[in-house]
Amino acid sequence: MDWLDQVQWDAQGLVPVIAQERGTGDVLMFAWMNREALQKTAALGRAVYFSRSRGKLWFKGEESGHVQDVHAIRIDCDQDVVLLSVTQRGHEPGIACHTGRHSCFYRVLKDGQWQATEPVLKDPACIYK
Questions:
Q1: Which sequence spans correspond to the domains of the chain?
Q2: Is the model's pTM score more than 0.90?
Q3: What does the pLDDT read at residue 92?
Q4: What is the largest CA-CA distance in the chain?
Q5: How far is 7 from 66, CA to CA, in rounded Å?
Q6: Which phi-psi region, left, alpha or beta, contains residue 110 (left: φ > 0; alpha: ψ -120 to 50)?
Q7: Is 3-127 in CATH node 3.10.20.810?
Q8: Rounded distance, CA 58 to CA 51, Å?
Q9: Quick count: other Cβ atoms within 10 Å of Cβ 110?
């Protein structure tokens, strides 16, 4: 059986993906992959996601330059979530979030409010032209 056939794809043919920074263990982002994106990620050693809003493959960093090199691809026990071990390139420290932050998970619930706890490392207006 093909390794891709073992993935438990959802009704839209997608699987959720978590990108985790190899060096720090930081969870950088959550995204989706279809079969082609996961196949290309494995073949290229570079994160390729499926953009639901655009309805097409999204090579991480194609616009921003913030590429994710993939060191390992893991799947959970139910085979319905993928975990990527990545190195975030394109800015030091790496920027994974479209807001210009290191991680998409930069808000923490404190006193009943979501509070930003990570700084903007680069203005998104300078990243996306």
A1: 3-127
A2: no
A3: 72
A4: 50
A5: 27
A6: beta
A7: yes
A8: 6
A9: 9
